[in-house]
């Protein structure tokens, strides 16, 4: 199979899949060596960067997702008649921040940091797909832990959690004043 055909296969699979998918899962499904899949994804990503393409291939950590380019978002939204999702409340943003910077975390940890009940914020973030359950912690009661999702990375324009802005310490804040 030629390189252009491999790119076409990857493009079709990513389009049909919709959600982010790992290189390893693509390799297993296509029965191709992982290196060949990686090479094809990188070539497809380069092709999508051309100005005559309305698509982009996003790298979200170790996952890949085909998406429309940001500059065409208004056209896509109007065509699909999607309503803009309600912005996150201050409480939800605080909860999301605690999770993003400290994941995986339990609800009790979130509430300890915020100082208030965070049940509704956690439920809202789960519903929006910005966080997900990450298993159970090895603590008394084996509480559920939470982490951010690939959807979180996409919404905030990050390729990985390394792209989160650094946290300023109290000393840095006082020094900047």
TrEMBL record:
A Pfam family hit: SMC_ScpB
Keyword Endoplasmic reticulum: no
Record carries keyword Cytoplasm: yes
Residues that span the membrane, as ranges: none
Keyword entries, A-Z: Cell cycle, Cell division, Chromosome partition, Cytoplasm
Cross-referenced Gene3D superfamilies: Winged helix-like DNA-binding domain superfamily/Winged helix DNA-binding domain (1.10.10.10)
GO BP term, pick one: cell division
PANTHER family: SEGREGATION AND CONDENSATION PROTEIN B (PTHR34298:SF2)
Protein name: SMC-Scp complex subunit ScpB
Organism: Candidatus Faecalibacterium faecigallinarum
Gene field: scpB
């Amino acid at each position: 199979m030629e390189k252009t055909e491999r790119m076409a296969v990857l493009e079709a699979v990513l389009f049909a899949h919709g959600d982010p998918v790992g290189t390893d899962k693509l390799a297993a499904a296509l029965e191709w060596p992982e290196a060949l899949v990686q090479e094809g994804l990188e070539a497809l990503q380069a092709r999508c960067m051309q100005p005559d393409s309305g698509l982009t291939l996003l790298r979200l950590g170790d996952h890949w997702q085909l998406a429309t380019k940001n500059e065409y978002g208004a056209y896509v939204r109007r065509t699909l008649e999607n309503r803009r999702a309600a912005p996150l409340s201050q409480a939800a943003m605080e909860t999301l921040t605690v999770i993003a910077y400290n994941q995986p975390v339990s609800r009790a940890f979130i509430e300890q940091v915020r100082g208030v009940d965070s049940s509704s914020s956690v439920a809202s973030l789960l519903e929006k797909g910005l966080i997900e359950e990450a298993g159970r912690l090895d603590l008394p009661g084996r509480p559920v832990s939470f982490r951010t999702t690939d959807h979180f990375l996409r919404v905030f324009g990050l390729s990985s959690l390394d792209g989160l802005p650094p946290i300023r310490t109290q000393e840095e804040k006082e020094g900047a004043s």
